[in-house]
Amino acid sequence: MGLRPYVGLAFTALFVCSTYSAIAQAVPAATEAGSPWAIGAGLSRYNPDYGHEHLLGGTLWIDYKLTSVPSFLQGVAIEVEARDLNYGHRSPKQSNLRQDTAGGGVIYSWSHFPRFRPYAKLLAEYGNTDYGEKHGPRGHDSRNFLGEGGGIEYRVIPRLWVRADYEHQSWPDFFKATKPAGRLDSQGFTVGAVYHFGRSHFH
After folding, report:
1. Dihedral of alpha carbons 151, 15, 170, 132, sign
2. What is the pTM of this model?
3. Which residues are within 8 A (CB) of 102 and not within 5 positions of it... i.e. 6 or more apart?
């Protein structure tokens, strides 16, 4: 398992965003200067809501800032996100526990301050999880779910921002032994850096 099955998803999102960019070029952008793309990566620590574990792993972000939009939509971007949580097991019994997710959605950044930029996001995601004891029965499950969250970015140098991100994921109908089936509420934090290619990102 891992993030390789989601590479196609990321490239599909990039193709869609590139197509949008080609169409939008027919209308002059009022505020965008340079490329609307941003890419970043970070280290994540999540509570998978299974057992008493916390998992570590890596996160990848790709953002595309919408251009040629009404003023009230300035700050809206499309975000593609992928995460692999496979490290940091505290209990040898849960050494098979793993989560990897990928998806995309909308992120809104509030660019009122010159160095700080808070944001909120809503993503449609697909995830896999492995669970079970090292020498016992093992399980595997997959789900479509929504991820919501937010965070803040801080500009350290032109075009490079440090990002602190929080996300909550609600995996529906996960614990089928309960009536009704219980959900898996995974949540955690990611700290990383994002490089914005367009100059308008730090006005």
Report:
1. negative
2. 0.77
3. 3, 6, 9, 10, 80, 81, 82, 83, 125, 126, 127
pLDDT of 93 reads 62
DSSP state of 181: P
Distance, in Å, from the CA atom of 104 to the CA atom of 95, rounded to the nearest integer, reads 29
Strand partners, 46: 55, 188
- The tokens describing 77, both together, are 């971007």
CB 168 within 8 A of CB 147: yes
25 dihedral zone (left: phi>0; alpha: psi -120 to 50; beta): alpha
DSSP state of 74: T
CATH classification at residue 110:
2.40.160.20
Q: What one-letter code names the amino acid at 60?
A: L
Residue span of the structural domain in which 103 resides: 4-202
Number of domains in the chain: 1
In three-state secondary structure terms, 112 is: coil
30: CB partners within 8 A, 6+ apart: 68
pLDDT recorded at residue 94: 62
The pLDDT value given to residue 40: 98
